[in-house]
Specification:
The chain is mainly α and 285 residues long. The chain has helices at 3-21, 26-34, 36-60, 65-75, 81-89, 94-123, 134-158, 160-188, 193-221, 226-237, 241-251, 259-284. The radius of gyration is 18 Å and the shape is globular.
């Protein structure tokens, strides 16, 4: 990607993460003590099950390395502000969803570089191996994720009224930015979009549906209530597509790796909409 596009994408992610911070409070991190079982089930699904499922799917299907790596990058980036909104609209446990997003965002600073390095070594041809500098990547993710989130939380704590006024506009802007980023990647990779979509479409849909199903039923196995199960299901299946796209295009400099996360970002809005409609229609009855 050219320098301007890289700067725009990084700035977009920072704005989105700032918006996420506006919806977080310190109490969200404390819920791991208040609701340990729900938090542990959700975190295990996001941090452990999701990458394993991603690897199983890309190993089973005969797909190009670029798509396989894109799926693994996506699987390494669970949660995000979109999952909180969908959980709220679907009548799930919003507090649990927000807490899972907050905690997983901290944990994935460490796990993302290792999962992506594994994928690069596993799927790229030996003569083309690309490896991330783990410590440098951790620092970069910290700068583009944790610092903006922390600033947003600071604003939420000290300027609560302002944060509440800005939360909806920033969320709307985040959605628009994500759509524009996806369109930019599609234009950049226009020659490969159709074959990539043919490969990535089904595998990303499978990742989305299976991860949400596992999330829901694992919650039920541990006797969590329905609202908690909905939250864990959505947190397991609605990934931070913007972060995945940014890692692919900015940190790795490979827009082709961003195709799978871009397609997934479109799919998850569709499946998320179905979940919202289903739960609202049941509520109405």
């Amino acid at each position: 990607m050219d320098n301007l596009a890289t700067i725009i994408l990084a700035a977009s992610l920072i704005i989105i993460m700032l918006g996420m911070g506006l919806s977080l409070q310190i109490q969200d991190f404390k819920r791991i003590v208040a609701y340990p079982k729900a938090m542990l089930v959700g975190i295990f699904n996001q941090i452990v099950i999701l990458p394993i499922l991603g690897y199983a799917l890309v190993s089973f299907f005969n797909i190009q390395p670029e798509i396989a790596i894109g799926v693994m990058i996506l699987a390494a980036c669970p949660g995000g502000p979109t999952s909180n909104l969908i959980t709220h609209l679907a009548k799930g446990d919003t507090a649990l969803s927000v807490s899972l997003t907050a905690v997983s965002s901290l944990i994935t600073i460490i796990t993302i570089p290792f999962i992506i390095n594994f994928a690069l070594i596993e799927f790229i041809a030996k003569g083309q191996v690309i490896q991330l500098d783990v410590s440098k990547t951790i620092l970069q993710i910290f700068v583009i994720v944790i610092i903006p989130v922390s600033i947003g939380m600071w604003i939420k704590h000290y300027k609560t009224a302002f944060a509440e006024r800005m939360e909806k506009p920033v969320r709307t802007a985040s959605g628009i930015v994500l759509v524009l980023v996806i369109l930019g990647i599609i234009i950049k990779e226009k020659e490969n979009v159709i074959p990539y979509f043919q490969q990535a479409g089904w595998i990303t849909l499978a990742l989305n549906l299976i991860s949400m199903t596992i999330g829901y039923f694992s919650a039920k196995i541990f006797n969590l209530n329905k609202k908690q199960a909905i939250a864990i299901s959505i947190e397991s299946g609605i990934q931070n597509g913007t972060l995945a796209i940014s890692i692919a295009a900015v940190l790795l400099g490979r827009p082709d790796f961003a195709i799978a996360p871009a397609i997934y970002s479109l799919i998850m809005f569709f499946t998320g909409g179905i979940i919202i409609f289903y739960n609202l229609s049941k509520k109405a009855k």
